[in-house]
Structures are given as C-alpha cells and as structure tokens.
C-alpha cells in the first residue's frame, strides 16, 4: 500500500522507525555462507531467538490472559502487540568469548502480573536454545515494574526456575508461549 | 403388436397415466424422468400431467399428495423453460395454495416453487406473491437444512430479477441470521464444502442488492466491533463487496459509524489482515462515494467524508512522538487511492502539512518516515492522468518537493537517501513536472550517488535504477549532463589503470561501467554509450595496456546489460548486434593470432572466464533478433569460422588466416565458444549456411584431445544445433555421426573423456525435446556409471541433464525444451537406476546413488512425493553414503516425506534418529543444516513413537547449538525447541 521495500512488516512502522529497520529476516551474509568463517553468537541472534517467541507466542499468551487483551485495545492508549513485546536489541548483551548473556525485558504495565511468567518464558527459551556454557541473566528493565526486585530474584534463582518448571500448569503456559505451532 | 403401437400413438396419455401411477403408488423413481422427457419432446403438455395427477393430488393420505406434487415439481424443474406465462400463473397459484398443506408435502411444494422461480416467463408481481406466501405459511428458520436451501435458492433466483421489493426485511432476516459464518465443516464432509465456500456464497447474497443496506450496514458495524477475528474480517470484506453495488444513498446514514469502526481497527489491530481488510473497505467506500451520480440538489458526501478522515488523521501526522503516523498515513492513502477527486482533496491538505513536518523534525530517521509518507501520496498520483496541464495538483508543490528531495539526497543517512532516490524517480515519472533545471540538478546527484562507496551499496543500486528509469523519460538531459561526465571518467580510468592497479581506482572504473549500462534505457542513449564501451574495450586491449581479467569481464558485463535493455526495442536490438558483435569477434580473432613475442595482455581475451562473459553478451544480443536480420548476420559469421572470411570485421588486418577448425593453434580453436554463443541463440527458423560441413567440423573438434574447453564448446554447439533441427533424414544423419564418434571415442584410448562429454551433451539435447533416441543414449550413459574411470563423471553428468543451462539449450535461445522433461526423465530412468544400484558392485554403488540424487534433487517436490515411498529403502541406505552430494540430496528428499507421510516413516524412526544426529556433525555446513531440518521434521511423527528418543535427542542437539556457523545454530535452536515440546503439557 505505502512505499516500497521493507515496509511489509506493517505494524512495526508505528513505532520509532529505528525499530522497523531491524524487523524482518536477518539477511544472510557471504561470511555466514562460508564454511570456514566462524560466526560468533551476537545480540541479534539472541534477539531473534527471543523474537520467534514473541511472534509465535504472543497471541496464545494473550488469549490466555484476557486482561492483557483489554490493555491493548484501550483506545486512549493504542498499543500494538509488537510494541508490547519488543525486547529491544539494545537490551540484549552478549559475549560469546565470556559465555554470558543478559536480557532485559519491559513489562507492558508497571503492575503487570505476568512479568514473572514472561521472564520465565524468556529464560526457558534461552536455556533450550543456547549452548550450556552460557551463563544467562534475565531481568526486568530497571524502573519498569513495581516489584522489579522480587521478580528478578525469582528469575535468578535456579532452584525456583527448576521448581517452576516442575509445576505442570506453569510449564503448560510456558510451553504455550514457546510453541511455534499455535 | 402393430395394433398396440397404434393404440399408444393415438392415446399417449394412456402411457402417462401408467407412469404417474408407477411413481405415486408404485414408489418408483424412474417414471419422473420419463415423464419429463416426454413433456420436453412434446408428447404431452404440463396441463395433461396435472390432469393425470388429479386424483393423487386430492388423496386424503398426505404421503400420496406429497408424492404427486413431487412428480409435478420434478417435471417442472426439467421443463420450466417450456412454460407459458398463463401456465406459470396457474401453477404458482396452485403451489402457493399447497403451502398450507401438511408438513410432509412442503418439501415437494418448495421444489416446485424453486422450478417456477427459474421461469423466464414469470409475470411481474408474482415473485412478491410467492415470497409472501412462503413467509406467511412456513417458518423457514425451522425447516430441515435441505428445504432451507431450497428457500434460499428461490430467494436467490428472484433476487436476480430484482423483485424482492416489500420483503426486503424478511429476506434479510432469513439470510443474515447465518452471518458471520462460524460453521466449520467436518473434515470428512462428503460434499467437500469448505468454510470459505459458505462465507463467499452468503456474502454474494448479502451484497447482492442495495436494498439490504439499511439492515446490513448496522449488522456489519456491530460485527466489526466484535472480539472475534474472523467476524471482523468477514464483516470488513462483506462491506467491501457491498460497496460495488451501493451508492451514496445507501451509505449516507452510516458513514460516520463505518469510518469510526474502520479507523479504530486500523489504529489498534494486532493483525495485519484486519488492517489490510480495513484499508480495503475504506478504499471501496471512498470509491463508491466518488462514483455516485448526484441529483442536482444533493450534497456531495465525498467531501464531507474525506474531511472527516482528514480531521481524525492529520493531527497524528504532526505528533512529535510519531506513534500513530503510519496507520494514519495508510488510512489517508487508502482513501486517496480511490479516485482522482479523493486523491486531490487529500493530498492538497496533507502535502503542505508533511512538507512542514519534514522541516520541523531534524533527525534523519524521522525525516525518512515523513518522506516515505510523501512518497506514498506521490505514487497515488501516478494512477490518475490529468488532461489539463494546469490542473495537475502537484504543480504547486513542485519546488518544495524538489528541494526536499535534494536535501534528502545529501543527508548523511543512507536510509533517507534511499527514500530520496525513490521519491525522485516518482517525481520524474509525473509528466511535465520537473523543469530542465531540476533535471540537471537531479542528474548531478545521481552521478554522485552512482559512485558511492561499498557501504552504501543499496543507495548506489537504487541510484542506478532511478537513472535508468529517468533516462528513458528524459534522454536529452542524460545525454547532455551525464554521459559526457561518464565518458571523461572512463578516459581517466584508462590512464589510471595504465599507471598501476589501485583498488579504489579499480572500483571507480567498475562503477563508471555500471552507470553507463544503467542509463542505456533509451535508443538515443545506447547510440552514445555502446561506442564508448566498445572503444574502451579496444583501448584496454592495445599493446600498452595491462588489462586485467576482471576489468575486461566488467566491460563485458556492462555490454551484456546494455544488450538486455536493447532487447525490448527491435531497432536498438539490431543496432547493438551489428555494432557490438563484429567488434567483439575482431578483438577475439586478433587475440587468437599466433605472435612472435608473447605479449600477455592480448591473451586475456582467450581466458575461459572472459570468453564466458563474451558468450553471454553475444547470446543476449542475438536471441531477440528478427529471423531475417538474424539470417543476414549468420551469413557472415558462419563463413568467418568455416572459411576464414574476415571481410566484415572492423579491424581486419591480421598476420595470418583465421581457421579455427583446420588450424592447429589452440587459441583460434577456443573461439568456437563464440560461434556457439551465436548459432545456438538464433531463432529456430533461421537457416544456417553450410550446416553439413559445420556439424562435421564440430563433431571432429569435440573429440580432439588437445584442449578440453574448445572440445566442450564444440560438443555444446553441436548439441545446441541438433536440438533445434526438425525431425528428418538430416537430423538422423547427424545423430548417426555423433553416435559413431562417441562409440569410437569411448573405446580405450586418449579421448574417452571427450567422447563422454559429446555423449552427455547430445543426450541432453535429445532429452529436452523427447527425441526417441534419447532413451537409448541415456541407457548408454547409465552403463558408464560402473565404468571405473568415467563412473564419477557420469554420475555428475546426471546433474547436467536435469539442470537448466545458461548458454546453450535455453528456452530464451529458442531451444526446444519440453516443460515436463524432468518428470519424464524421472519416470523413464529411475527404475533402471535403482536396478543398476542393486546389481552394481560395492565400489561403484556410490555412483548410482549420486546419479539418482541429482535426478531427485532437480525434480519438483510435489511430483517427487508420491514416488518416494518406493525409494525409501534406497534413501535410507543412501544416508550412510559418505558423499556429501548424496547426503544432501537424500536429506532433502526425506524432509518433505517426514512431513507428508509420518506414519510410514515411523517404522524407521530408529535409523532416522541415529543417522540424522550423525550427519548433524558433518564437516559440510549444508549437510549439517539439512540434517537438523530433518530432526525438526521428525517431530511430526506420532509423539508416542518419538518419546523414547526425547532425552537422547535433546542431549545430542545441545552440541549443534554451539556450532561455529550461525545458520546451523538457527536450525538447531528450532529443532531442539520442538523436541522439548514433545509430550509436554501445553504444546
């Protein structure tokens, strides 16, 4: 409809144009196709791992929690699903040689009750998608949630994360977020 | 006997009575068709049928009455076209009356009415009366489905005669209660009805008449507001369909609500489909308002509607955070795209605003967003042509737009430059908008942008494209301001190159060449650029220059692009051909001359890569020639090669004769590739002089062991000509010649590999055209798979047979290529390949697998899929083959099979898991990727089969997560993610 290349993404255009430059598939470079050249794990790669969660998972997540649907349909504050879920690439810090990843995510509203769950989903996705050598830190973007500290503490606690994943109901919800088939 | 026949002829109605009795009382179905056929043939009238039915229609038993009416209805359904108006009136009265009858009778009554609703002879007013009777006597909504369908058919039939008048609301009620369709047919539905069919049929009814508008529009507005995605989409699409038949009158009262709903959806939706359908609906609404014919005193709703849209959208364009900028722009553009009037109205309001916003914002990315919106509005203007030059709405903004575009073109942000270039191209496409001064400036910018550095590649490409588009429209501006500058640059490049090789100068030279070919979009410009390029090529090959291979190839690529652009215009095409080809040939012949002192630069032209680049220029310059012009050219080029006739070459004083076929010098022989490029691109109807001699020379050269590239070129040339020859004695002779040569060559000796190449190319030429001899030659080729020396080459030969060539045997080059040749090759030869594999000794088995892999690889997957189960055991065996080509091809065959036939594959799960995991650590990246994709596809197998493997697979897939290649990691991530979900709650 509008303009030409790169604008198929639709809604991302609402936001700051910087975001939509990043949207779409990461173009495959010649280096990536060269068998010999090693490609290090970078922030974009983590972002893509995360994004596939956001793209595939959000709808089911929101169907599951009707109050979130209301918040996106609030005509006074028109927000889009993508905006709700964008984990900006700048908030992903990764060091391949040091084997560390840090992801900050921004809950939709400061009292979002789903913050722990969203954090947990990110954490599980990273656990499943990154080599074991990586130490991962998932936390709330500072100053964006009322109980930021408590949530961060839970997410950092290995035992709690493991225990949470023993909980069938929680695992079910997390899996729903991660399922590409939904 | 004779008496009986006479009796029947006298009283045909006697037979009728019998048939009626059989149907009504005897419960036989056959007589109905018989009666209908008799009525059609005129043996008796409908009235007589009614008379014959008489008693059964009055029978006290409702089943008998039903049966009687059923017979009449079935007859009417077949014979309604024969009815007279008078008969229709009587029948309708009868049927309307019968609607009061027992409920068992109703279905047959409705069938009869349906038959009557199809009548052309339906007197006015009767449709109304029928519908009235139906709605009065029958509660449609509680009828069984079949009968409801009959009612809708009656309604639909009447709709086509536009007579629903007083019953609009009732009709609407009975149809709209199904909207929106939320029924999903069961997967085993015997009627094969899809949900989409139901949606479309209902939409066709609802949108069939403007009279439904007052009832339908509120319903649509309500459903757009619903929470259910499918309801929103269906409503928006139905609204879109309605706009095709509605007018201003129908829409008038609902415009504010419709706009409010559409706006809300586009502003807030998360779904791209809702957005697209919303925009489409707005577009149709505006188009509908634009085309309505108004009464003199009526108010034009278009203006107020557009003003409404503008009022709600324009402030978003000015908000500093730019949050709703894009949805607003899309809405405005959807409306503006509907008509010239809407476009004027909206752009005249929006453009000044956007121009102002551009200057208000200082960041490049914000400016880019604004310019992109401006671009969107400008593009809409291209849809409408304006008769009167002064009325063109963009004229008033031209200066501002130009200065803004030029500002964008000099901005440091590549992204903003890119949009600037696209905007410039759109402005230029507006007739008579840009002044010559603007054009001069624009050309200056484009010149600068064509030489941008490596990191702004996308900008440079866009600038070249824009130059091409604009040069076609303003050839004079480009001839006078751009071509001279490029010519100067080219000369400077020649001097620089002579001085020494600096990479920056090299790339500048390359860009100059690309710019020259990019602007060659107008015949008058080609007449300037082509001589420049050829002159440059001559200069590069003068003794003093040190021309590198890459520079010469770059020139050839430029020439090739110019040739492509010339293909559209027959005159330019001939100009290019007769200018460039003699030049190229002269240079090549010159280079092929034996020289006393070995000067290196001249030989550049004889290198394989350079020759390939020239081949492609010659091919492109030949395929589009008209047959008579091509004949002129062939009459000069074939004698050049066969007789050394150099008279048509521009510089033709050579130290010795040019005799590529007789002479022993390998340099001259290499030029056969150029002959191939030319003769194999000619239209089939062009007769080739001295064909017999030419073919014999080519066969001879193809098996000459001294130089592999010239013998291959000869084989290809021979095959290319063979493919185009009509069937007949001449073709058979040439084939015999080739077969004899191949057989002689394949016997132990020095030229086995040449003979094989000839066999391969001849086979390909015949396979492509389904020649009967092709199977025999393919068989010979297959036999070579077990040849210890030629086996591996023969296996790779199957790849050539199945793939598309670029230089000979192409459709573009007029070769005879049947579309299904790959499928046919597969069906004809795969059984033999499989058999050969089983019979072969262990050391040559891989050759068969590889040959098979090539065949399977090139076949379209949907064709392949049904055949694969029979090959399954072979494919599983092939997974253990150490050859990468075989592995890759096998994996790519198994992957769709896993998705399509999981049940069959389940039986082999153990083998599959272990082999795939094994291959996921192959040294070849492509194999690793394919193996992981197969691991992913494995998750489609039934979960209980997979669960025992889950822990093992998840552990094993942790390793490729740390692969050194990102593309491999990506596949590992998605495969492992799916395996985690197997059998887990919530997946």
Keywords:
heterodimer; A: 182 residues; mainly alpha; GMP Synthetase, Chain A, domain 3; 3-stranded mixed sheet; 9 helices; 9% strand; disordered N terminus; B: 987 residues; 70% helix; globular; MMS19_C (chain B); DNA damage (chain B); repeat (chain B); DNA repair (chain B); cytoplasm (chain B)
Structure explained in plain terms:
The complex is a heterodimer of chains A (182) and B (987). Chain A has helices at 17-22, 30-33, 43-64, 66-73, 81-85, 115-129, 148-156, 158-166, 168-178; strands at 92-95, 100-105, 135-140. Chain A is mainly alpha-helical and 182 residues long. Chain A has a domain at 87-178: 2-Layer Sandwich (GMP Synthetase, Chain A, domain 3). In chain A, strands 1-2-3 form a 3-stranded mixed β-sheet. Chain B is built from 52 helices and no strands. The termini of chain B are far apart. In chain B, 70% of the residues lie in helices and 0% in strands. Chain B is an all-alpha fold and 987 residues long. Chains A and B meet through α1, α3, α4, α6 and α9 of A and α15, α16, α18, α20 and α22 of B. Chain A: This is Cytosolic iron-sulfur assembly component 2B. Chain A: Residues 69-137 form the MIP18 family-like domain. Chain A: Keywords: Chromosome partition. Chain A: InterPro entries: FSCA_dom_sf (IPR034904), MIP18 (IPR039796), MIP18-like (IPR002744).
Q: What percentage of residues of chain B falls in helices of 4 or more residues?
A: 55-70%
Number of strands of chain B: 0
Strand content of chain B: under 5%
Any idea of the CATH class of the domain at 87-178 in chain A?
Answer: Alpha Beta
Overall, the morphology of chain B is globular
The N- to C-terminal Cα distance of chain A equals 29 Å
Q: What is the makeup of the main sheet of chain A? A: 3 strands, mixed
Low-confidence stretches of chain B at least 5 residues in length (pLDDT < 50)?
1-11
Helix content of chain A: 40-55%
Individual helix count of chain A: 9
Order the strands across the largest sheet of chain A as they lie in space: 1-2-3
Beta content of chain A: 5-15%
Calculate Rg of chain B over CA atoms: 39 Å
Largest sheet of chain B: none
Largest interface: A-B, 53 and 53 residues
């Amino acid at each position: 409809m509008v303009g030409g290349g790169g604008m198929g993404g639709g809604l991302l255009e609402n936001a700051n144009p910087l975001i939509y430059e990043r949207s779409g598939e990461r173009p495959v470079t010649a280096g990536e196709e060269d068998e010999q050249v090693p490609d290090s794990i970078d922030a974009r790669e983590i972002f893509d791992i995360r994004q596939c969660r956001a793209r595939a998972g959000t709808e089911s997540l929101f169907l599951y929690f009707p109050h979130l649907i209301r918040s996106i349909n609030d005509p006074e504050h028109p927000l889009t699903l993508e905006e709700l879920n964008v984990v900006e690439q700048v908030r992903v810090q990764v060091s391949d040689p040091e084997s560390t990843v840090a992801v900050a995510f921004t809950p939709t509203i400061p009292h979002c009750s789903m913050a722990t769950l969203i954090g947990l989903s990110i954490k599980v996705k990273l656990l499943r998608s990154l080599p074991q050598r990586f130490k991962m830190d998932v936390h709330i973007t500072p100053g964006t949630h009322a109980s930021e500290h408590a949530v961060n503490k839970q997410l950092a606690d290995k035992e709690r994360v493991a225990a949470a994943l023993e909980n069938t109901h929680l695992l079910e919800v997390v899996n729903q977020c991660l399922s590409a088939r939904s | 006997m004779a008496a009986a026949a006479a009796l029947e002829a006298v009283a045909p109605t006697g037979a009728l009575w019998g048939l009626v009795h059989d149907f009504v009382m005897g419960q036989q179905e056959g007589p109905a068709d018989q009666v209908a056929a008799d009525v059609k043939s005129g043996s008796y009238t409908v009235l007589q049928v009614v008379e014959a039915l008489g008693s059964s229609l009055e029978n006290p038993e409702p089943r008998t009455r039903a049966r009687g009416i059923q017979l009449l209805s079935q007859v009417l359904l077949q014979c309604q076209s024969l009815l007279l108006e008078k008969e229709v009136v009587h029948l309708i009265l009868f049927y309307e009356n019968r609607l009061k009858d027992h409920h068992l009778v109703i279905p047959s009554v409705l069938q009869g009415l349906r038959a009557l609703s199809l009548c052309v002879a339906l007197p006015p007013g009767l449709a109304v009366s029928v519908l009235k009777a139906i709605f009065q006597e029958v509660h449609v909504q509680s009828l069984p489905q079949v009968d409801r369908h009959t009612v809708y058919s009656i309604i639909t039939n009447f709709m086509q005669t536009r007579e629903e008048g007083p019953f609009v609301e009732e009709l609407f009620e009975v149809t709209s209660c199904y909207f929106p369709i939320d029924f999903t047919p069961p997967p085993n539905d015997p009627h094969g009805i899809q949900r989409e069919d139901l949606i479309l049929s209902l939409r066709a009814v609802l949108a069939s008449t403007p009279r439904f508008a007052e009832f339908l529009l509120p319903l649509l507005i309500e459903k757009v507001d619903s929470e259910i995605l499918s309801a929103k989409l269906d409503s928006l699409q139905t609204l879109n369909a309605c706009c095709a038949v509605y007018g201003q009158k129908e829409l008038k009262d609902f415009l504010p609500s419709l706009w409010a709903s559409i706006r809300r959806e586009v502003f807030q939706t998360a779904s791209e489909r809702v957005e697209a359908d919303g925009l489409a609906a707005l577009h149709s609404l505006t188009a509908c308002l634009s085309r309505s014919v108004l009464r003199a005193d009526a108010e034009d709703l278009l203006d107020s509607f557009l003003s409404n849209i503008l009022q709600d959208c324009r402030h978003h364009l000015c908000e500093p955070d730019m949050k709703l900028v894009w949805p607003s722009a899309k809405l405005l553009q959807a409306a503006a795209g509907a008509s010239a009037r809407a476009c004027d109205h909206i752009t005249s309001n929006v453009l000044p605003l956007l121009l102002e916003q551009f200057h208000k914002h200082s960041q490049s990315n914000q400016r880019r967003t604004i310019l992109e919106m401006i671009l969107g509005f400008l593009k809409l203007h291209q849809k409408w042509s304006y008769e009167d030059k002064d009325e063109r709405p963009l004229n008033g903004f031209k200066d501002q737009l130009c200065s803004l575009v030029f500002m964008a073109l000099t901005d440091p942000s590549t992204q903003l430059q890119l949009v600037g270039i696209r905007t410039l191209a759109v402005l230029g496409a507006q007739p008579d908008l840009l002044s010559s001064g603007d054009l001069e400036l624009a050309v200056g910018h484009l010149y600068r942008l064509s030489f941008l550095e490596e990191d702004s590649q996308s900008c440079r490409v866009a600038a070249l494209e824009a130059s091409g588009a604009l040069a076609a429209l303003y050839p004079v501006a480009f001839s006078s301001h751009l071509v001279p500058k490029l010519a100067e640059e080219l000369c400077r490049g020649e001097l620089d190159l002579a001085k020494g090789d600096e990479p920056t100068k090299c790339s500048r030279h390359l860009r100059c060449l690309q710019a020259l070919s990019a602007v060659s979009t107008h015949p008058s410009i080609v007449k300037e650029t082509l001589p420049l390029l050829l002159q440059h090529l001559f200069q590069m090959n003068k003794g003093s220059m040190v021309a590198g291979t890459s520079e010469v190839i770059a020139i050839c690529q430029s020439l090739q692009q110019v040739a492509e652009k010339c293909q559209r215009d027959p005159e330019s095409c001939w100009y290019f051909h007769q200018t460039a080809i003699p030049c190229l040939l002269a240079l090549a012949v010159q280079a092929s001359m034996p020289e006393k002192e070995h000067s290196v630069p001249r030989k550049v032209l004889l290198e394989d890569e350079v020759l390939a680049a020239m081949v492609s220029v010659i091919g492109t310059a030949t395929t589009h020639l008209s047959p008579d012009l091509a004949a002129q050219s062939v009459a000069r080029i074939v004698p050049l090669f066969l007789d050394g006739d150099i008279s048509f070459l521009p510089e033709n004083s050579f130290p010795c004769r040019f005799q590529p076929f007789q002479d022993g010098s390998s340099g001259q022989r290499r030029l056969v590739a150029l002959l191939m490029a030319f003769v194999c691109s000619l239209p089939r109807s062009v007769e080739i002089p001295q064909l017999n001699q030419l073919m014999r020379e080519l066969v001879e050269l193809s098996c000459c062991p001294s130089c592999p590239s010239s013998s291959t070129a000869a084989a290809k040339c021979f095959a290319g000509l063979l493919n185009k020859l009509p069937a007949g004695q001449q073709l058979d002779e040439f084939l015999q010649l080739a077969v004899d040569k191949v057989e002689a060559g394949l016997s132990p000796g020095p030229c086995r590999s040449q003979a094989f190449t000839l066999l391969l190319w001849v086979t390909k030429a015949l396979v492509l055209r389904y020649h009967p001899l092709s199977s025999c030659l393919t068989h010979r080729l297959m036999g070579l798979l077990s040849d210890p020396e030629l086996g591996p080459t023969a296996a790779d030969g199957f790849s050539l047979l199945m793939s598309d060539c670029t230089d000979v045997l192409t459709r573009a080059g007029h070769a005879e290529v049947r579309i299904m040749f790959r499928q046919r090759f597969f069906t004809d030869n795969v059984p033999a390949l499989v058999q050969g594999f089983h019979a072969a000794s262990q050391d040559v088995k891989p050759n068969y697998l590889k040959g098979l892999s090539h065949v399977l690889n090139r076949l379209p997957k949907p064709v392949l899929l049904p055949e694969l189960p029979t090959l399954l055991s072979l494919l599983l065996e092939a997974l253990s083959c150490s050859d990468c080509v075989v592995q890759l091809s096998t994996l790519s065959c198994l992957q769709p099979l896993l998705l399509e036939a999981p049940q069959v594959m389940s039986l082999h799960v153990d083998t599959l898991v272990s082999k795939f995991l094994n291959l996921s650590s192959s040294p070849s990246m492509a194999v690793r990727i394919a193996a992981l994709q197969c691991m992913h596809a494995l998750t489609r197998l039934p979960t209980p089969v997979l669960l025992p493997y889950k822990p093992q697979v998840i552990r094993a897939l942790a390793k490729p997560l740390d692969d050194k290649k990102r593309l491999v990691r990506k596949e590992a991530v998605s495969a492992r993610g799916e395996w985690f979900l197997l059998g887990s709650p919530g997946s």
